[in-house]
Amino acid sequence: MKKHFWIAATFLLGGALITAWAANSSGAAPAKANNGPGLAFAQTVSTVTGVAISPLLGMSAVGAWQYFKADDKSKLPFYAQLWFWLPGLGLVGLVAAKDVFGAATPPGLKKPLDVAETFENKINGLVAAGALLPMVIGLFGGLKSADAGVDFAGAGLAAINGEGILGVLTLPFALACYGVVWLVSHVIHVLILLSPWGGIDAALKGARTAVLGSLTLISYLNPWVGMFLSLVIILIAWALAGWSFRMMVFGTVFSWDFLTFRKKRFRPGAKENWAFAARRIGKSPVRSYGRLIRDEAGKLTFTYRPWLVMAPRTLDVPAGNFAVGNALFFPSLERVDGEETTAWFNFPPRCNSHEAELGKIYGVPVRDVGIIKGFKAAWRWLRELFGFGAKVPAAAA
User: Is residue 335 within 8 Å of residue 317, measured between CB atoms?
Assistant: First the structure.
């Protein structure tokens, strides 16, 4: 993994240096080379990175910029139409207001909004990915075939201009960069969804806004410096792509279970159930999503697919003293070593209130953990205080 990372880093940074050297060797200053392919490439890298960090804000801002620059607004792509970018900026403002006032909002009122924002970011991410083609080609729109060094007239392809070809050739690179950066950016929504404190939410959103604002300002002042900063962000995102993907799956499953109240319709499987690895088990990284299986001999195995689509891998879970942890939002399978407990697997929220069934399936006891332990102890004390304690069977009495 480290070897591939340094190969990719050398390739991207080397290509950026060659592009910058080629543009500067032409004798034109970067600020004046408005029609050069090198500058268009630099602007593409910065724009795609900014849109990936915040798809709705990025698309709306780019659309508004193109809207006010265009003479014929009827030919603009959909994201540059007034009906798209104006409501988009309005929605961004509402989300910002939610984040500002959310720090003082109880988690029970704020979390549904965080769940909705998580799905909103996924939808906008897909819409922005579809908008990359007109967006990238639009950045090359100021080029002429002669400027790009491509002449198709002699080949009988005069209808295909140079800027369109350059835009299409750049698109796979733009999609790859967009994908890895969006994954890391989306993890912020997942962390906010899992965080119980509004202060952490504000800090995460503030950090993302600071990166986006700095990238936009630097790219406006000097496109080449903006491109280098974008490439650094892309390389960091590429290194975190696997972890980000697993966190995205984790957040998606949790959000869907909470949103649909799936625990009311769910029944655990008799031999296997879906779970997330809460720690690294063999070659299985943390947050791997797979099936926790118990065979007839009582042996536990974990089967998962890397990236959800690759060949399945099965790992043996080391024997130990396990118990189902009854937590507030989702149960877990924990290993108990004396007074210390370690979470090995996290079951989705659909398994909440099914802890007793999970204990029977995996042949382990159920124990209260975390805040639920304090809640249940307090509730038991109140019931006994007012005489509503559990009834004792007559024979035992």
Answer: no
Burial 256-275 (b: 16+ CB within 10 A, else e): bbbeeebbeebebeeebbbb
For the chain, the residue count is 397
**Cα separation of 204 and 116, whole Å?**
17
pLDDT tens digits, residue range 22-71? Answer: 444 444 344 444 445 667 778 888 888 888 888 888 888 888 988 998 88
Q: Counting Cβ atoms within 10 Å, is residue 57 exposed (0-12), middle (13-18) or buried (19+)? A: buried
Per CATH, which fold does 268-385 belong to? PH-domain like (2.30.29)
Measured CA distances, 35 to 101, 149, 268, 315, 340 (Å): 45, 12, 61, 56, 65
Strand partners, 330: none
pLDDT band of residue 274 (cuts 50, 70, 90) is very high
- Structure tokens, 112: 């549904």
Task: Retrieve residue 9's tokens.
Answer: 């880093």
Asked whether 235 and 9 are in contact (CB, 8 A), the reply is yes
Specify the 3-state DSSP secondary structure of 294: strand
Give 197 or 144, the one with higher predicted confidence.
197
Q: Are 331 and 347 in contact (CB under 8 A)?
A: yes
Report domain extents, the chain: 2-255, 268-385
Q: pTM of the entire structure?
A: 0.73
CB 53 within 8 A of CB 73: no
The predicted-structure confidence for 90-139, as pLDDT tens digits, reads as follows: 888 887 777 666 655 655 566 677 777 888 888 888 888 888 777 776 66
β-pairing verdict for 300-304 and 322-326: unpaired
Angle (nearest 5°) at CA 273 between 271 and 276: 140
User: Please, what is the angle between helix 132-139 and helix 162-194, to 10°?
Assistant: 130
Those residues whose C-beta lies under 8 Å from the C-beta of residue 103, and which sit 6 or more positions away, are 198, 199, 201, 202
For residue 302, the cross-strand partners are 292, 315
Helix, strand, coil % (nearest 5) of the chain?
60, 10, 30
